[in-house]
């Protein structure tokens, strides 16, 4: 039996300890905010925050996060009003929206590490998150806006 | 209220259309039909009448203009408006209901949007592709709103005993200004529902000067908040009690099938419950599944791990030798010989022979995969002769029809619930993944979710065609183009529907080949044969991508040959402002629209070129290693022109400091979403130009994921994309937005690279060509 801490809550798992965290979150814990996009840490759609780091849940096994704090979009902010989320809404960032949870989690992790990133630092830090609709200009602006006060 | 305190700090905020980011509620909750929706009534379809004619009536099931189908008002005043088209990022789930709200004088903050299930008899055509939604539904949605408003006004007038002409709906209430009385929509709902639906012909539409929402761009997407908090529901997010999770190993070669398989090792994987062969259809079979071996498990991760452990022997069938290098040579050979003539004006042969100079350009574009961020996924629950589907489908009506046909049950027994689409780009017009879920659910007697992995998406989809476009242009001694021969060779989408289709269909020929708008005396377009060896499907912008690339590259090549500015050359070729006549084209396909409403108007094409040249600073001096390129194209009956600035360093590294695009999409509804679409098409255009190639060897796709089929990431994306929207003329009908942005991007980019480096790239993707 594995015990995980997700968004402050204990979750138990008695199945395959190698199961990617992504599928535990989505299919076993019902936390479907975290998305599957590639399964190989290439697109960032599954980004969650483990302790204070952005992590790709698709290549992280459940056993890897035992004893650590996992934060998903559902736990990012109690009312969904994290500065990043607010900035995203103010700039109408999304198109289809599918990658945006991963983008938001990546941006939130970036701001934990670097509260005032430059545009170039934003572009570098967000480069692991693919948006096929092409919302990058707004994502970049929204991260900047979140960092300078929404 | 504009929350951007210092727009200068944000990139790309210099815009033609200024957008106020008004913060407003966008929570979408409580949409259940429980209680109090009194405008809801039995289905009664009536044909839509429009002030301008569109092709909407020619689509399957046409349009339905009935407020009782689309609008419900609760006693508390909440107005629910049905969105019957699929949301894949264009904003249509917001824009169409907004049109209804505008006309009915509903207050947007008291509007809720409800997604229609698949039922084209009830809602009209739901096939969300071809950049058609606003173009086909602006007028029907206005009429629906005006009908609802008239019914509310009549109800109020009756209650007060005054003539209906004395009352007016204003912002969610009806007002009798003579007496100062007013009554809210909620209080009127029950009475309004008893009114007969007014005739479309007698409806009074609002004067556009009174519009509160249309054309303004201050309304955020209804799903915006849900997207940012993770509650927006896509296909794979649907969960049903007792649901099984499935992935399928599909034949790697189109037309292949399972010869034998061994599922013993897969069954040993923790969480795997069943391994089973699933039915496939012989190729071509429209959107029917490919078949293969399914692994059923308690979660998707276990199913994927189980699939990895399968041992399958495939029978590859007739396409086992498909190989991209050889196929390209075959297309090039075909392009160098005469082919089926699909447009002919003057005598191109004689004109080329008599030309002072002939410039030849042969352009190659490989297959592309859609790779929407959400790979296909669907949930099905089949019980007896009834089926319910949940999925990200572009065509809810088509899905219903195909699932019913496959299961052998009546369409009325199939419910298709449309989730949000995590990108569509044409891939999700094909409902094979929903059929797969239905077949598995029927077999297992339980709800099933089928999840495509990214590799499945890249290897088993419906690819963008592969093409060679060859253009020969003859110049006289004054540098005037007197002859234009364009041969386009590419496997057709028709090959996915019928075996042996070797010519492109009218809808493909009409995308930038036979509709070429230049004023040239001798023009001939030809379509040599090309046989398909994989499933070919619609990809955003479709054949316009290779055609615009070829035609607009050739414009720059002609400018070079005649020592002229590329923009001047482009304008000269477009020629005089006129309506282009295409009498020699049989079965001209004008995006399904009547030519009288949507002719090829060169004045509009000139206008976007001139606008983007002015706003984008054409001719401005740029640093060393930088270059500007321009391209223009008409597609989906919209006009668009793009200037790209590139920078190429001495190692051949390509960056894009700036993009400027002007679009004339006629009367528009939501400029904020138009802007986002155009920003996005610059990224998609850059992706396909820089990296995009799906190649085959031994009949199999050689790529599988974002490592070997890369798309543009933020660090490669244009630093700034500016969008300029041409204000519409008073009677200009709406035209497409979702797709027109893609085609001009690649040629503008390639022309800019030429300006920067002197290298002319004729085969995409760019890949390492600049490093050589």
UniProtKB/TrEMBL annotation, chain A:
Cross-referenced InterPro entries: 2Fe-2S-bd, 2Fe-2S-bd_dom_sf, 2Fe-2S_ferredoxin-like_sf, 2Fe-2S_ferredoxin-type, 2Fe2S_fd_BS, Beta-grasp_dom_sf, Diverse_Oxidoreductases
GO terms for MF: 2 iron, 2 sulfur cluster binding; metal ion binding; oxidoreductase activity
Annotated SUPFAM superfamilies: 2Fe-2S ferredoxin-like, CO dehydrogenase ISP C-domain like
Gene3D superfamilies documented for this protein: 3.10.20.30, [2Fe-2S]-binding domain
Ranges of residues in domain 2Fe-2S ferredoxin-type: 1-76
Key words of the record: 2Fe-2S, Iron, Iron-sulfur, Metal-binding, Oxidoreductase
Keyword Chaperone: no
Protein name: (2Fe-2S)-binding protein
Organism: Bradyrhizobium jicamae
UniProtKB/TrEMBL annotation, chain B:
Listed PROSITE patterns: TAT
SUPFAM superfamilies attached to this UniProt entry: Molybdenum cofactor-binding domain
A molecular function GO annotation: oxidoreductase activity
Domain of life, per lineage: Bacteria
Span of the signal peptide: none
InterPro entries from the UniProt entry: Ald_Oxase/Xan_DH_a/b, AldOxase/xan_DH_MoCoBD1, AldOxase/xan_DH_MoCoBD2, AldOxase/xan_DH_Mopterin-bd_sf, N-heterocyclic_Hydroxylase, OxRdtase_Mopterin-bd_su_IorB, TAT_signal
Domain Aldehyde oxidase/xanthine dehydrogenase a/b hammerhead: start-end pairs: 229-318
Gene3D superfamilies linked to this entry: Aldehyde oxidase/xanthine dehydrogenase, a/b hammerhead (3.90.1170.50), Aldehyde oxidase/xanthine dehydrogenase, molybdopterin binding domain (3.30.365.10)
Protein known as: Twin-arginine translocation pathway signal protein
Organism listed in the record: Bradyrhizobium jicamae
């Amino acid at each position: 039996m594995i015990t995980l801490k997700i968004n402050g809550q204990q979750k138990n798992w008695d199945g395959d300890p190698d199961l990617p965290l992504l599928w535990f979150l989505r299919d076993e814990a019902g936390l479907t905010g975290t998305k599957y996009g590639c399964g190989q840490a290439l697109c960032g759609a599954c980004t969650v925050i483990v302790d204070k780091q952005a992590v790709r849940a698709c290549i992280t096994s459940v056993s890897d996060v035992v004893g650590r704090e996992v934060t998903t979009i559902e736990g990012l902010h109690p009312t969904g009003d994290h500065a990043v989320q607010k900035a995203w809404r103010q700039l109408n960032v999304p198109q289809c929206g599918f990658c945006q949870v991963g983008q938001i989690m990546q941006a939130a992790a970036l701001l934990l590490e670097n509260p005032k990133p430059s545009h170039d630092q934003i572009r570098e830090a967000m480069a692991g998150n693919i948006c096929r609709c092409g919302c990058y200009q707004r994502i970049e602006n929204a991260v900047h806006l979140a960092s300078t006060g929404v | 209220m504009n929350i951007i305190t210092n727009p200068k700090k944000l990139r790309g905020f210099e815009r033609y259309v200024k957008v106020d980011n008004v913060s407003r509620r966008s929570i979408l909750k409580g949409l259940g039909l429980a209680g109090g929706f009194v405008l809801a009534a039995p289905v009664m379809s009536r044909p839509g009448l429009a002030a301008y004619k569109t092709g909407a009536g020619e689509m399957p099931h046409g349009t339905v203009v009935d407020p009782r189908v689309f609008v419900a008002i609760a006693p508390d005043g909440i107005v629910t408006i049905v969105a019957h088209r699929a949301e894949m990022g264009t904003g249509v789930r917001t824009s169409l209901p907004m049109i209804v709200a505008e006309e009915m004088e509903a207050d947007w903050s008291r509007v809720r949007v409800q997604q229609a299930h698949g039922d084209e008899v009830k809602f009209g055509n739901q096939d969300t592709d071809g950049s058609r939604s606003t173009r086909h539904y602006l007028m029907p949605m206005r009429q629906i709103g005006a009908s609802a408003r008239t019914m509310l006004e009549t109800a109020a007038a009756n209650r007060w005993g005054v003539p209906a002409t004395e009352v007016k709906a204003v912002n969610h209430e009806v007002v009798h200004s003579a007496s100062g009385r007013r009554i809210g929509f909620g209080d009127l709902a029950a009475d309004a529902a008893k009114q007969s639906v007014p005739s479309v012909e007698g409806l009074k539409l609002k004067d556009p000067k009174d519009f509160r929402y249309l054309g303004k761009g201050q309304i955020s997407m209804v799903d915006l908040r849900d997207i940012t908090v993770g509650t927006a529901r896509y296909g794979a997010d649907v969960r049903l009690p007792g649901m099984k999770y499935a992935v399928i190993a599909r034949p790697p070669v189109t037309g292949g099938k399972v010869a034998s398989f061994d599922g013993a090792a897969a069954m040993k994987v923790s969480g795997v419950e069943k391994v089973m062969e699933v039915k496939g259809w012989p190729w071509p079979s429209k959107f029917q599944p490919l078949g293969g071996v399914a692994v059923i498990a308690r979660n998707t991760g276990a199913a994927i791990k189980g699939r990895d452990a399968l041992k399958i022997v495939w029978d590859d069938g007739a396409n086992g030798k498909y190989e991209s290098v050889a196929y390209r040579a075959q297309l090039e050979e075909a392009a160098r010989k005469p082919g089926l003539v699909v447009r002919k004006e003057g005598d191109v042969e004689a004109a080329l022979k008599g030309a002072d100079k002939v410039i030849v350009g042969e352009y190659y574009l490989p297959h592309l995969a859609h790779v929407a961020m959400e790979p296909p996924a669907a949930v099905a629950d089949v019980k007896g002769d009834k089926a319910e589907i949940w999925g990200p489908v572009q065509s809810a009506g088509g899905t219903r029809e195909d699932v019913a046909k496959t299961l052998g049950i009546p369409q009325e027994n199939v419910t298709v619930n449309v989730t949000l689409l995590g990108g569509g780009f044409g891939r999700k017009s094909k409902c094979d993944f929903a059929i797969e879920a239905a077949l598995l659910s029927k077999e297992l007697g339980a709800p099933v979710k089928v999840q495509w992995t990214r590799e499945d998406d890249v290897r088993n989809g419906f690819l963008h065609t592969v093409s060679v476009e060859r253009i020969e242009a003859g110049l006289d001694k004054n540098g005037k183009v007197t002859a234009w021969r364009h041969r386009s060779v590419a496997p057709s989408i028709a090959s996915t529907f019928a075996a042996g289709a070797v010519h492109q269909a009218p809808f493909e020929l009409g995308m930038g080949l036979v509709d070429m708008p230049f004023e040239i005396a001798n023009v001939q377009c030809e379509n040599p044969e090309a046989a398909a060896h994989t499933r070919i499907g619609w990809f955003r912008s479709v054949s316009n991508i290779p055609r615009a690339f070829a035609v607009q590259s050739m414009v720059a090549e002609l400018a070079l040959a005649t020592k002229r500015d590329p923009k001047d050359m482009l304008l000269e070729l477009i020629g005089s402002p006129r309506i282009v006549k295409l009498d020699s084209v049989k079965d001209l396909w004008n995006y399904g629209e009547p030519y009288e409403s949507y002719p090829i108007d060169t004045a509009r094409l000139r206008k976007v070129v001139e606008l983007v040249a002015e706003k984008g600073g054409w001719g401005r001096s740029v640093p060393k290693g930088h270059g500007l390129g321009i391209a223009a194209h008409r597609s989906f009956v919209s006009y668009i022109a793009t200037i790209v600035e590139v920078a190429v360093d001495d190692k051949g590294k390509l960056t894009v400091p700036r993009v400027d695009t002007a679009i004339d999409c006629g009367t528009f509804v939501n400029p904020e979403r138009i802007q986002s679409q155009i920003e996005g098409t610059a990224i998609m255009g850059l992706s396909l130009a820089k990296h995009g190639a799906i190649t085959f060897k031994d009949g199999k796709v050689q790529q599988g994921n974002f490592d070997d089929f890369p798309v543009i990431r933020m660090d490669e994306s244009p630093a700034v994309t500016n969008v300029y929207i041409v204000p519409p003329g008073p009677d200009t009908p709406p035209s497409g937005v979702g797709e027109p942005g893609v085609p001009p991007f690649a040629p503008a980019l390639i022309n800019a690279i030429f300006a920067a480096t002197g290298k002319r790239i004729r085969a995409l993707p760019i890949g390492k060509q600049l490093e050589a």
